[in-house]
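for the writeup, i need someone to sanity check this before i put it in the appendix. the sequnce is what the collaborator sent (i think, or maybe the updated version? ugh). structure was predicted straight from it, no edits. if anything looks off just tell me and ill rerun, i have time this weekend
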Amino acid sequence: MAAGVTTTRAMTARDLEAVPEAERGELIRGEMRPVSPTNPEHFLVTGNVFGPLWSFVNERGLGVVGGEGGFLLEVDPDTMLAPDVAFVPWDRFPPKGRRRGFQPIVPDLVVEVLSPSNTAAEVNEKVRIYLAAGVRLVWVVDPVAEVVTVYEPDGAARLLRPGEALDGGAVLPGFALPLDDLFA
């Protein structure tokens, strides 16, 4: 190594586990990025997505719906994202007794609710990471504009407005959530 040159090692998901929870963030290619607390609007809209989605999945025994779970989506360097809401089918969810630590689990659906601090570049980067990892459906919810952008695996994006409804597509056939209810 040349004199005066320093290198830093990329943070891993295992390193992140050692960080106190209050200080954790998301990892993108080994770099920890802070995640800020949310405002009441974000909190409300996240709940308005979570509730109906959880009910639909739970009633049918399809898998797990949760919020802010850490999903290890890339390794070496590690990328671990914590979407606001995610759905993981039972066949990819770890069995009881093996649910500790961040694991390479790819949700079928992730929901990101935008915060005022989010930049378009950040959101686009996360969507690309999710889709490249194999997430089948990404909903980016904008509480200010009251729109949702739906991303499919081929990268195609659809913009939904009030009066329209989110649907589960091939991931959760039969699920529907009117945007008027989402932004109530």
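The chain has a mean pLDDT of 87. The radius of gyration is 17 Å.
thx in advance!!
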